[in-house]
Specification:
- This protein is mainly alpha-helical.
- The protein has 2 helices and no strands.
- α1 packs across α2.
Amino acid sequence: DRVMQSRRRSLMEAFTNVVVGYALAVVTQIIVFPWFGLQPGLGDNLALGLVFTSISLLRGYALRRLFARIDRE
């Protein structure tokens, strides 16, 4: 049996996904960038994390809409 998720629950899930993704991006950059000789400051890491997170959001939305269109065909 498939249970539909409420809009509020979907919003909470999406928000949590974005927050966790952003935090993971920043922590990963802080750990990985020095391996490549890059030493950005915390502000730069936060800004880069925001860029990567925004791209991820757009990618996720575009793929979701693509698959929704495929499902309708």
